[in-house]
Amino acid sequence: xxxxxxxxxxxxxxxxxxxxxxxxxxxxxxxxxxxxxxxxxxxxxxxxxxxxxxxxxxxxxxxxxxxxxxxxxxxxxxxxxxxxxxxxxxxxxxxxxxxxxxxxxxxxxxxxxxxxxxxxxxxxxxxxxxxxxxxxxxxxxxxxxxxxxxxxxxxxxxxxxxxxxxxxxxxxxxxxxxxxxxxxxxxxxxxxxxxxxxxxxxxxxxxxxxxxxxxxxxxxxxxxxxxxxxxxxxxxxxxxxxxxxxxxxxxxxxxxxxxxx
Length: 261
Fold this sequence. Notes:
Elements: H1 20-26, H2 32-40, E1 49-53, H3 59-64, E2 70-75, H4 78-87, E3 94-97, E4 110-116, H5 124-134, E5 135-148, H6 154-166, E6 190-205, H7 206-214, H8 225-242, E7 246-260
Parallel strand pairs: 1-2, 1-4, 2-3, 4-5
Antiparallel strand pairs: 5-7, 6-7
């Protein structure tokens, strides 16, 4: 399903379904520290009911399944949900191909709603009231994010420049460490309970970093097959000339915990 938002990539269409196979293979990259931060908040464990919106291939539910929460994942892309179901084989996780703006679970269903790498895609004026309704008393929204830092990491910076060469409309680059932005429409029904931003070193090989970049919005989700092939050939050559076989890429992680009033 093509997504067009004038505030993202200057309105250039993208479709996560086009990159689902690479997404499933190369974007399950959050280090244990990322999950430990969630657990330290007392969230997503021990029988809590958790809704992961924009779940993609189910990375968050799959990796946190062992901590005992009951997970439900939703995503606008049917291809992403199919990958999530395959990768979650043997796990009791419910998945639905459904836009966040059309969620309609009963009142008070969930203890926690998580949103990882996706919060900026939603129509918040529509969904804020829905989140409030679906959460139990004192329920939480946990917004999660991780991004490479192109001004601090040479390889990340070179990869970004190559994405922009083939897709100058891409607005997903240029990240610096900053708190997650929460739209004002949440203020009436939620309060910011906690937030944190922290540095991470994430390990890659040349193959896995190429796959991670190929599965980003600016490449596999929006370029044509021929454009993606040209980008990939040049990107692999860049890595051969500039990166060792194994290396870390500097990222930062962030979360914002919103508590239902």
